[in-house]
Amino acid sequence: xxxxxxxxxxxxxxxxxxxxxxxxxxxxxxxxxxxxxxxxxxxxxxxxxxxxxxxxxxxxxxxxxxxxxxxxxxxxxxxxxxxxxxxxxxxxxxxxxxxxxxxxxxxxxxxxxxxxxxxxxxxxxxxxxxxxxxxxxxxxxxxxxxxxxxxx
Length: 152
Known about the structure:
Layout: E1 5-9, E2 15-17, H1 20-26, E3 29-34, E4 40-44, H2 45-57, H3 64-73, E5 78-81, E6 87-89, H4 92-98, E7 105-110, E8 115-119, H5 120-129, H6 132-142
Antiparallel strand pairs: 1-7, 2-6, 3-4, 3-5, 4-8, 7-8
C-alpha cells in the first residue's frame, strides 16, 4: 500500500528521487504514465497489468472507448527503473503533461495502489478546489467510510 507524500526536486536531467519507502513496494521495474488531473501515475508492473493490459486485452480492438483510453494511458507510458541513488528518469512528454519543469519541486503521493507525481503548485490548487461536500459525495458514491453491518 502506498500512503503519504514526499516533496522532491526534478534534477537538470529530468530525474526524481522515488522515496525508498515507495521503491521497495514498486519493485525493480515500474510504469510511469499520464494521470488524471494533470499528474503522473506510477504503478508497479502487477497493478499496470491488472488495471490496463488485462482490461484492454479483453476489449474489442475497435471499441472507441478502449482506443481513447489506450491512447491516453499507453501511448506515452514508460517502463522505468530507479538508479543506484533511487532516481527515476521522467521523459519530457510526461513532464509536459504534468506541468513539471526541470529543477522544479514535485510532490510524490501514495494513493493505495499507485503513486502520483504532481507539480507542487497544481497539487495545492487541486486540494484547494475540493470542498468537504465534494469529499462527502465521493465517499457516498464509492462506499468509502461506510461500515457494512453483517447479519448474525
